[in-house]
């Protein structure tokens, strides 16, 4: 099979016709990889580098168990809306407790996973190491 070549009029050298396509494809691949991997590399440049640690299936099961138990004891079909504040490392629990005391309405329920609120007694808990869950009534 004969290879198709084009000569460059400026230099007289033969230029492969797919060269710019290959170069563009490589550039696009590098750009996509950079964009995709930046989400994983960016946390390394934070002042305090902490990994994202999602809730485990056991912890999610414990949350479901404690919510079902509390719903049954409240004789209610629902406990109201649920807000997931995300994951953390437990350093803000004291400040969070103060904020919750100031801003939550009476009879509000709070479920804390992995880290308890420091000075508020919990109404119920399932303690199983890092999968622990604590239930509070305000």
Automatic annotation (TrEMBL):
GO molecular function, one term: protein-lysine N-methyltransferase activity
GO cellular component terms attached to this protein's record: mitochondrion
Domain of life: Eukaryota
BP-aspect Gene Ontology terms: regulation of mitochondrial ATP synthesis coupled proton transport
Name of the protein in its database record: Protein FAM173B
Organism, as annotated: Clonorchis sinensis (Chinese liver fluke)
Taxon lineage: Eukaryota, Metazoa, Spiralia, Lophotrochozoa, Platyhelminthes
């Amino acid at each position: 099979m004969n290879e198709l070549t084009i000569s460059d009029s400026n230099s007289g050298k033969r230029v492969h016709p797919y060269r710019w396509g290959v170069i563009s494809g490589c550039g696009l691949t590098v750009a996509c990889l950079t964009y995709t991997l930046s989400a994983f590399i960016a946390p390394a440049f934070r002042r305090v580098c902490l990994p994202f640690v999602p809730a485990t299936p056991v912890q999610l099961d414990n949350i479901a168990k404690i919510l079902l138990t509390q719903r049954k004891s409240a004789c209610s079909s629902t406990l109201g809306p649920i807000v997931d504040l995300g994951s953390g490392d437990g350093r803000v629990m004291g400040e969070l407790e103060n904020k919750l005391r100031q801003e939550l309405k009476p009879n509000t329920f709070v479920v804390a996973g992995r880290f308890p609120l420091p000075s508020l007694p919990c109404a119920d808990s399932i303690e199983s190491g890092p999968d622990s869950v604590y239930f509070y009534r305000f």
